[in-house]
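pasting for ref
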Amino acid sequence: MEQMVDTYLLHLKVERGLAKNTLDSYRRDLKKFVGYLRSNDINTLNEVDRRMIMSFMEDLHNQHRAPATISRNLAAIRSFYSFLMQESLVKANPSTELDAPKIPKRLPNVMTVSQVAILMEQPNSNNAAGLRDKAMLELLYATGIRVSELVDLNLVDVNLEMGFLRCLGKGSKERIVPMGKSAIEAVGAYLQKGRGKLIRNSEDQAVFVNIHGGRLTRQGFWKILKKYVRQAGFQGDITPHTLRHSFATHLLENGADLRAVQEMLGHSDISTTQIYTQVTAIHLRDVYQQSHPRAKH
């Protein structure tokens, strides 16, 4: 069973070009599933039936795993068995017709425009690290790209003259995203005055580098953001994704087309983008309640 999982993961990496984080997620979920099968004296995937997968999902529920986690595990099992069927490695697919638990849609955490402005003021632009941090914060909010996409940027991906950047999203899908004036100025200042002081190897193409001169990691950016969130005195959970959520919400609040926002975010399905329309609807209601002379009567 473990060998079949490895074969499947290799297929995802080579044939479908999935990102490392996605592959790690599949590996964890399928390893958990195989471990559960072993603990129930099942040693081949052909022995697995529908009830066994339901039992596995129930076990996850009893461990107080979130519906989203259970749903993700089921999706991994379904995809795994689809591959096994295509390769004629199993006789039947026991995962068909199984319903994933309903996941309550949580509205994304969004910053106000004034909060964003305060956050952007936190880095000290008098040193190389501060110039880098300012550029990263401005770029995340200006483009809505994911942190993984931010740290993967190479010099060739950024066109300051045209005001665009190129990034590779989930499934290695390429997209072009426009940058605003503030982001162009911040990134330009960092590239001219900051990056050269941080980089160790002049051949390195990474846009954003750490204090040791190597490419900055997602974890490294998380630490940087946490420092500025504390420095700004913000309460609540502000994550790198909060800037992405704020980017989308503020665009829609100011009349941007939903399809355009979908394209900039790199969402394959517009239903994923539509969650932001709920946030803007709540915002409009609050504005109405505060502004309309008869709203409180």
